[in-house]
Amino acid sequence: MSKSKPSLPRGTRDFGPEVSAKRSYIIDKIKHNFIKYGFSQLETPAMENLSTLTGKYGDEGDQLLFKILNSGDYLSKANPKDIEEGSKHLTSKIAEKGLRYDLTVPFARFVVMNQNEISFPFKRFQIQPVWRADRPQKGRYREFYQCDADIVGSTGIWNEAELTLLFNDVFDDLKLEDYVIKVNHRDILFLLAEYVGLKEKAIPFCAEIDKIDKIGDEKVIENIASLGANESKIREVMKILAISDRQKVIERIESINPDNKGVKEIISYFETLDQFKEKNLKVEFDLSLARGLSYYTGLIYEVKPTSVKMGSICGGGRYDNLTGVFGLNGISGIGISFGLDRIYDVMDELNLFPDQIAQPLQVLIVHFSEENLKHGQKVVMELRQEGIKADLYPDSDKIKKQFNYADKIQTPYTLVIGDNEMNSGEYMLKNMQSGQQNPMKLDKIIQHFKG
Known about the structure:
CATH class of the largest domain: Alpha Beta
Number of strands: 16
CATH topology of the largest domain: BirA Bifunctional Protein, domain 2
Strand order of the largest sheet: 1-5-6-11-10-9-7-8
CATH architecture of the largest domain: 2-Layer Sandwich
Helix content: 40-55%
Distance between the termini: 59 Å
Oligomer: single chain
Largest sheet: 8 strands, mixed
Structural class: alpha+beta
Strand content: 15-25%
CATH superfamily of the largest domain: Bira Bifunctional Protein, Domain 2
């Protein structure tokens, strides 16, 4: 039997040491700010029951769920008639679990299962991978990380403003300036849907509005009209969507219905953010923003880079009814999600990672003999005890091979141990870039690295 070459499933990736270090850099900045804002960490399983996942993301989302075949003889509960009735019917017989599509629905499930132990409002953050059976392309993967922060049990508009400030602080720490936070409100979108005659088809209306950037105004108008909308009113709505001045947009919407909850909350949201003008927040009110997920019920966010061609790098919004599908009513929530993989791609393209990220090791110990190697074992542990990132070449190879290895791993310093060094207690510390080397006592070497 011929051996097949190893390969990866499409839409997945390996991460080598340098890339992993850069990803950890982003995660550390995000996590630092999550904790600073009072969020507690949570983790949930990679797999959930399909009954937990289905029906929460709309029809398109349900199609992108990775299903897991039941253990053992997964066809034991199925029969030929099930196959005839189609894949959707058959799936219920052969797969009871699926990989999580996002972190929000599992979080809602956790809240319901632990409602008696949780103090509300409850603020949690979660940094874990999710899976989607999507078509892989630039910035779109089948396995990727989300970094979520959610607040449940509070309806105050400060939550919406606070999460915007959190976006700002994370990107400040990452030195990422080229982005815009777009916001909208689902009640405003539903008002516009009703205005064009699609009160009962608000979700499909929102899904079409969300495609404006991808397919253009005329195609969106055609698609909305095919839902049964009044075309002249659709064109009126499209003109409102094209207005860039926030106040004028709000006035036009108020002229349709001054009591709309969405308009009132958007006004209050921006009034709250106006207290922090010194932060120069990059926030835009964008009426064409209509995130497709079914569970958003209030203000919605999307963060897009402005100097790199890429989809959204963050998103989120308020979801008043999500826990209700699990039997817990009256719990409002709001959350945001940082797309780690896309943020990485943007930062990599803009060359925003610090140089020192790819250099975790400070010094490599090299040696001339087996006895020198044994001596080095104690030296390396003393250095590590002092918090210095040190390593020891583990084999009695020729010294030239050891120095070549030091060059390949780009360690800035080597510490050379020979018989003379063992006897004198002074070790040769060599700068691998300049070639300069000096004999130093171990305490001086420790002092050198600790600054």
